[in-house]
Design a protein that fits this description.
The protein is mainly beta. β56 (589-592) and β57 (601-603) form a beta hairpin.
Length: 613
């Protein structure tokens, strides 16, 4: 078999169709561009892989399972224009290797309609203000390739409609723009794997206009349907747009951003074991719908917003939130948030969120009352589905003004340690359980009206049991509601409260079972109703001016006229034989003879009775 020193020498030869020849290199002997060619009759040649010879015949490159990119004419010195040769190489449908000494310069956008496989350890220098490589309807595999945005590229790779997209090892770095940056874009993939990749220094210049998307930055942007996706063991560092007007960060500056689009497209994605450092707005934004499933597990998120002012109404003084969920099923487990200011640990921002699991997470961030114009909250549901179910278990929280708030219609908050400036748990739901938590008001808090647990007016049933609640104004605050609500407050320990163990504002406190609670000071060992008469209550029921009394007493107060009025609530709602009321005019105790509105009330000593009429 005839051998030539390089391609240039081969092109000067006169060869007949049917011959096989080899070269010792592409440009020079030994430059890793050596290849085998089959000589064919005259035909079109791209002059990168296939070459026209002196007599008009064509040397056709023989493609192997794995090819060095230099066999297609790529120089790889970081200065020579390699875009056309690179495109030819990746369209060859075989695995292309780029050795770690090479820097392949792409100076114009490339669109490919084929499966692409690249490996090696070398660099692809993206010297173009555009999406550098777009792969239409083809699979994409990248192993240990380093994509350098050269301070100007908008995106390295956009993969569209792939069965498989795998990016493992390597890096995406040094992307910057005056409009937007999305280093890696995936639009529809049956199988997605991004593992062991480093995303660093992805920045954009915000124009200071909030809401126009100018200045948005995303390391990974995923749209459309994802059959099964995994993003793990990656590092995200300096993903932000804080170099703009007034250092605003309200446009998306997210490491991972998903958008299923279309309203019904399914995404099933797991984000695990990643490190997020210095993400301007969020680490993870999951814009889901009813058909999406997201697992965010065992990640470490670090806010680098240190020592910023705590200004009410000011945008740009902290990371907006660590994890933001907009739809579907969301399991947020075993993640750690640390460092500077972060407005929310996890926020659920849309009524398409239908199930929430928050388990085993911990955060200890710089203590702030406000961030980006809003009060700081660890776990917030700012908009969830009407039938959303939420469980919050085994979490440790420090540094936030509020702990758990508005997460769903059926909520269980159990076995957490929450230290907050203000109210720890606000269960703005229909049915709620708050059990076995340690709830502490931060010693540095200036709030004098906070509660350990707030039971808002939306609740139909609740149980607050087995908690240790320390340092708040009230241990449990039961807000007003209709007579249909039933609740239990039992076996809690209240410590160092400034007002009451239980403050009951409800219209029908007799529906609340309050038993077995303990307190370390008399001021908190009682409940109080804030109606027009400001009576003291035990079990939510009137008990005169007591200062310390066991909480299993079942006494309700009423005036003489109320006891005698057959139409009063005392006689028409929850009246039963043996029920006790105290005449607030005479302080005498009366006992109901039966449950009917007309059944008499007897004095406790049986000497006389009052029959309602």
């Amino acid at each position: 078999m005839k051998t030539f020193i390089n391609v240039a020498q081969m092109k000067l030869a006169t060869l007949q169709a049917g011959q096989f020849v080899e070269t010792g290199g592409y440009y020079t002997k030994g430059d890793a561009g050596a290849a085998r060619y089959l000589i064919k009759a005259a035909q079109a040649a791209d002059e990168y892989g296939d070459h026209t010879l002196a007599n008009g015949t064509v040397a056709v490159l023989q493609i192997l399972a794995v090819m060095d990119i230099r066999a297609f004419g790529v120089v790889g010195d970081g200065a020579t224009s390699d875009a056309d040769a690179f495109k030819l190489a990746i369209e060859s449908k075989v695995e292309i290797t780029i050795e770690d000494t090479l820097s392949v310069r792409i100076e114009k956008a490339i669109v490919v309609n084929a499966n692409v496989m690249i490996s090696g350890g070398g660099k692809i220098l993206l010297d173009v203000v555009d999406i550098a490589i777009k792969i239409n309807t083809g699979d994409f595999t990248s192993k240990n390739i380093n994509y350098d945005g050269n301070g100007k590229s908008l995106a390295a790779v956009w993969v569209v409609n792939a069965d498989t997209c795998e990016v493992t090892g390597g890096s995406f770095k040094n992307f910057d723009s005056d409009t937007w940056v999305q280093a890696l874009i995936i639009s529809n993939a049956e199988n997605l794997l991004i593992s062991g990749v480093s995303f660093t220094d992805l920045t954009c210049l915000s124009n200071g206009v909030i809401g126009d998307a100018n200045g948005a930055v995303r390391a990974i942007y995923i749209s459309g349907t994802i059959g099964a996706g995994l993003i793990d063991n990656c590092v995200f560092d300096n993903i932000n747009n804080r170099d703009g007007v007034g250092a605003l960060t309200w446009e998306d500056a997210d490491a991972i951003n998903t958008a299923p689009l279309g309203g019904t497209l399914a995404q099933n994605i797991t984000v695990s074991n990643n490190l997020f450092n210095d993400c301007g707005k969020r680490a993870v934004k999951l814009v889901g719908n009813d058909n999406t499933t997201y697992y965010v597990d065992n990640n470490h998120i670090i806010s680098t917003w240190i020592g910023t002012p705590d200004n009410i109404g000011e945008v740009g003084n902290g990371m907006y939130g660590a994890i933001d969920c907009f739809g579907g099923f969301n399991a947020i487990t075993n993640n750690r948030l640390s460092g500077g200011v972060c407005g929310y640990f996890v926020v659920f921002s849309n009524e398409l969120v239908n199930e929430i699991i928050i388990d085993g997470n911990s955060c200890d961030v710089e203590r702030h009352e406000y961030a980006n114009g809003s009060k700081t909250r660890a776990f917030l549901g700012s908009g969830v589905a009407v039938d959303c179910k939420a469980t919050v278990t085994n979490n440790i929280v420090k540094g936030y003004q509020f702990g758990v708030e508005n997460l769903g219609t059926e909520v269980a908050v159990t076995d957490n340690i929450l230290t907050t400036w203000s109210t720890c748990v606000s269960v703005n739901a229909t049915h709620a359980v708050v059990a076995n938590n340690l709830l502490i008001q931060d010693a540095g808090s200036s709030s004098t009206t906070a509660s350990g647990v707030s039971c808002p007016a939306t609740l139909l049933s609740f149980a607050v049991t087995g908690n240790i609640i320390k340092g708040f104004q009230d241990g449990v605050n039961i807000n007003g509601n209709s007579a249909t609500r039933y609740g239990q407050v039992s076996s809690n320990v209240f410590q160092d409260l400034t007002r009451n163990g239980i403050s009951d504002f409800s219209a029908n406190p007799e529906n609340h079972a309050i038993t077995g609670n303990m307190a370390n000071n008399s001021a908190s060992n009682r409940t109080k109703n804030y109606g027009t008469s400001h009576e003291w209550r035990v079990n939510g029921l009137y008990a005169g001016s007591v200062t310390n009394i066991g909480w299993d007493v079942d006494v309700v107060g009423a005036t003489s006229s109320t006891i005698a009025n057959v139409a009063s609530l005392l006689n028409t709602v929850n009246k039963r034989e043996g029920k006790i009321t105290q005449n607030t005019n005479t302080k005498a105790l009366y006992v109901a003879a039966g449950s009917a509105p007309t059944d008499p009330w007897w004095l406790a000593d049986g000497s006389a009775s009052v029959t309602p009429a």
